[in-house]
Design brief:
- This protein has 330 residues and is an alpha+beta fold.
- It has a domain of 208 residues: Glutaredoxin (3-Layer(aba) Sandwich).
- The chain has 10 helices and 8 strands.
- The strands form 2 sheets. It has a 5-stranded mixed beta sheet, sandwiched between helices.
- The chain is globular and about 85 Å long.
- This is Protein-disulfide isomerase-like protein.
């Protein structure tokens, strides 16, 4: 064999090996990323790509739970880390571990929120929310903390759900952290007249009154070993959002609710009147991936993850540094 042939075959083998290694590295990157020394798992959520990371760990701050916070058996904590909506006698219980900066949370919320509101108002469903700060650990930020604290401050005023919806409607791009400036969060909250005119709410947000409560949720999130946000349980069973479209997510979610309601006897509890979902919101700071009102249609941008992981996102979902949804029964 001539020298040229040997060199040619060697180069071909090297190219094959290099391509194989590149594929392996891409697969490893798809499944596991390391961000700031923290192992981050990539999970498929509604056909998109989310990143499950440990919730941010910071020095403890004074713990002050918001009004009517509840101890949630699903959270396996003696602290009142949850916020309820819906009647206590509703047969189906859902638990949601979420992050207001998590794009996958926003996409799933957009797909299912109108439906779960109907179930809550009909007395069929009670939801317990646990706002955590997962994205903060990705970029060493504080926007998730500030958003969750503001939601807890709104709970003190009886406006949790309205601000909950507005925060998702105005979710910033995951690659930025404008909510690190609390005035950006207050600007969103100003869309709710009762909060705009409340000195108590304003001082609660600017002073970080419930930061310790949010951090307690983050610490408990890590302790539970949850895969990421959103994590959703219905009657203690974790949901698996692996569908490829928003319609499929909704169909799966509604099927799980209906099955749980039937299993629980099919008898509704006390009806609940929820506040009307906000119809307007400031556009500044909103996600460039086209975040929309939680009652509207999901984004179809398929924006790539800030971590550089592959998007491959079908219509109605987007990739993100967020994590998978979960909900459960108390």
């Amino acid at each position: 064999m001539s020298q040229a042939n040997r060199v040619g075959k060697q180069n071909a083998r090297e190219r094959v090996l290099a391509e194989k290694i590149a594929r392996q590295r891409a697969e490893r990157r798809r499944k596991q990323l390391t961000i700031g020394g923290v192992v981050v798992l990539v999970v498929a959520v509604a056909g998109g790509v989310g990143i499950a990371v440990s919730a941010a760990k910071h020095n403890s701050t004074p713990y002050a739970a918001p009004a009517a916070a509840v101890i949630d058996p699903q959270a396996k904590s003696s602290k009142a880390t949850g916020i309820h909506i819906g009647s206590n006698d509703a047969p189906v219980k859902m638990n949601v571990f979420e992050d207001f900066r998590c794009p996958v949370c926003q996409e799933v919320e957009t797909a299912v929120e109108p439906t779960y509101r109907q179930y809550v108002e009909a007395g069929k469903l009670q939801i317990t929310y646990h706002p955590a700060r997962v994205i903060d650990s990705h970029d060493n930020g504080s926007g998730s903390l500030n958003g969750a604290n503001a939601a807890a401050c709104a709970q003190d005023q009886g406006d949790f759900l309205q601000l909950h919806d507005l925060l998702y409607a105005n979710q910033p791009n995951e690659q930025t952290d404008p909510w690190a400036d609390r005035s950006a969060v207050l600007k969103i909250a100003d869309e709710i007249p009762a909060l705009k005119s409340s000195p108590g709410f304003q001082s609660c947000v600017t002073g970080g009154t419930h930061n310790g409560w949010v951090q307690s949720n983050a610490d408990n999130f890590n302790k539970l070993g949850l895969p990421g946000t959103p994590t959703v349980f219905i009657d203690g069973q974790q949901l698996s959002f692996t569908q490829t479209s928003a319609d499929a997510v909704l169909q799966y979610f509604q099927g799980q609710l209906d099955a749980a309601f039937k299993k629980d006897g099919g008898k509704a509890g006390t009806p609940t009147t929820l506040p009307t979902a906000p119809t307007s919101a400031p556009s500044s700071g909103a996600s460039s991936s086209g975040a929309s009102s939680s009652a509207g249609a999901p984004s179809s941008s398929g924006a790539p993850s800030s971590s550089g992981s592959p998007s491959g996102t079908p219509t109605g979902t987007s990739s993100s540094t967020g994590s998978t949804p979960t909900s459960s029964k108390s």
